[in-house]
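Subject: sequence -> structure tokens, single chain

Hey, anyone have a minute? Need the predicted structure for the following. Not urgent.
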Amino acid sequence: MSTAPSRKRGPYQRSRERREQIVLAVVDLVDELGHDGVTTALVAARSGSSEPTVLYHYPTKDHLLVAALERMDDLEAQIQVDTEEGAMLDLDKLRANADATQVTSEHRLRLFVVLKGQAATPGHPAGEYFTRRTEMAMLIFARLIAGRQRAGLAHPGLDPRETARQVIALWEGLTFMRLTDPTFDVGQSLIDGIRRLTGENWMRALAVLNDPAHGF
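Reply:
Had a minute. Here:
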């Protein structure tokens, strides 16, 4: 009986696997030590690489941290909502997601906040990542807010994309505040803010006024 020869990994495959090992090592180190404690020497030791190999794939510590943040997004998506066509923003699910995000490693949240601030520096490697991330989030939230408009739960005159921008800013701002003030409920503050931004309370009151059963 003949057997097929085993496939050898090419240089591209080996390089991709090495990059993955390095990034996962950074994720582990961030969870254990926080982003300030990450060094190329520790990353090399944890990933079974040499420091020159680490720096060949990721030329600076900032590149390592951005790659780790991207990998964290893959491992635990921060926007876990229904993205099907015609769907609308479910505030109960969004609150559950926000609550779950807050019990994530505090080191991960701090890394997100720190890199978000540094992304404003021209040429910083986090800039491109946050531009892509924000654009994707705005597309998702704009579609879901439009769904709430169709359901009569958001004011019809709102621009869904601009409202999505405000919702994202609210969520990220609350996340930052939670790191310095753990005494408030991020999830509740988030959905309360979304209701105000979208005019939901006004829309519900208007629906009651227009309901013939109430005799108005």
